[in-house]
Amino acid sequence: MADFLTDKPAKLERAFLVGVQTADMKEGEAAELLGELQELVANLRITVARTELVNLRRATPALLLGTGKAQEIVDLAKAEGADVIVFDEALSPAQQRNWEELSGLAVIDRQEVILEIFSDRAHTREATLQVALARMEYSLPRLTRAWTHLSRQRGKGAMGGEGETQLENDRRTVRDRITHLKAELKKVVSQRSVQRTKRQRVPVPTCAIVGYTNAGKSTLLNSLTGARVMAADKLFATLDPTTRQLVLRGNQKVLVTDTVGFIRRLPHGLVEAFKATLEEVIVADFLVHVLDVTNPNVEQHHATTLAVLAELGAGDQTMITVFNKTDAADAAMRRSARRLAPDALFVSALTREGLDGLEARCLELIAEAHAVTELLVPHTRYDVIARLHATGHVQSEEQLDDAVRLIGRYPPTQAAFFAPFVVK
Ligand SMILES: Nc1nc2c(ncn2[C@@H]2O[C@H](COP(=O)(O)OP(=O)(O)OP(=O)(O)O)[C@@H](O)[C@H]2O)c(=O)[nH]1
Ligand SMILES: [Mg+2]
User: Fold this and answer.
1) CB 271 within 8 A of CB 311
2) Probe residue for ligand 1, chosen from 210, 213, 214 as the CB with the greatest number of ligand atoms within 8 Å
3) Do 116 and 138 fall within a single domain?
């Protein structure tokens, strides 16, 4: 499958970035996002020639910005020798097309940049399929733009007759690919859920590490479990969940999963696409939310992660909040982190400072969630006894006249099932 950007490395080399501060945004938010966009674009090995922050009072349907401002930006971009204009704000397909016509340059938005990075990083079959699907869905309404791969051969302005037919063909091709990708994904995901069901039969509690991209999730997994997940100072180093076993004190085991990082303005298609991968997050017994305490935008990162978790249906999960990179933090950073999350732990995945405390907190949560309970199960309900053996851990089993008395633990996901038999 051809790539929109990587197909034409000769063309897209210098970017002109545009950040848009709208009335409903917090003071300085657009500037922060623009800084992040700069990093994202650099990740694609495109030089950032210049950035421009625009204050927008009212969005226009045609170009988002007013025509005067738009022309000004085109002139600036050309003066800088840019070959692509990148908007932090999402552009509608029509706005994007209008910008490309006005400027004669490639015009993309943050969403597309993120899609490109994900596509660069995808290695396993599932990640590749998910990213391909998100890109196809993004490009479907954008096929008429001047420089899309699928419509590139068509000359500009040749929209009558043959052009229309071509467009119809392109649309069909993309729709067919979407159908095909969805079917492939279904197969891959069902294989994975078989693996997970197998794992759930073992009564090992599970934990998912979540957080903003580059917070140090993979480094933390590596430090905790001796795993060798790639950790790197780049955004979205991890796309696929990796699960490793961590052995806590008293030989208590817990399965820890590292997950894809979150980011502000994550393309919606990607959240959708990654829901399957992030199922690990939803089914986990608890989450470890990792934050980079040294990042000046840590407050936004905190809010973004919580928002994405809520969108995934994991908003109510039990969570340990962890500020990472304490080795590089000063007192002021620690103070504001403390204000943001008073119960949080402070660790350094790099120097291992604070990891004992984190492990102790995990143990506490597991003990709370998997408290030893006493159950009285009628002889007629052998299925209940069988389920406790299968999903939990039975310490003792005693035959009484009218029931079986069991003492054991079970995972929280089974609590509703066992509740009627619990001895108060
Ligand atoms: N100083 C310091 N740097 C750290 C620490 N933990 C991680 N890092 C660095 O932060 C960068 C990102 O670490 P990763 O573990 O890849 O972060 P991640 O959260 O997995 O990132 P994504 O997979 O991209 O979402 C790397 O350069 C790490 O070396 C720490 O405790 N202290
Ligand atoms: Mg990672």
Assistant:
1) yes
2) 214
3) no
